[in-house]
């Protein structure tokens, strides 16, 4: 599973939950959104449309 490290996420709590259920954590290469373009696009949408007021 790959996730962004952005400030809007609670990385450590999620890592603890994943460890509890034996889910493996994997990071994508920094500055290379092509490794997970779908998630990067979703994160952009979350940031632009949900977190930043118009």
Automatic annotation (TrEMBL):
The organism's place on the tree of life at top rank: Bacteria
Gene Ontology molecular function terms on file: nucleic acid binding
GO biological process: DNA integration
SUPFAM superfamilies assigned to the protein according to its UniProt record, in alphabetical order: Ribonuclease H-like
Domain Integrase catalytic: 1-54
Name of the protein in question: Integrase core domain
Species per Swiss-Prot/TrEMBL record: Iodobacter fluviatilis
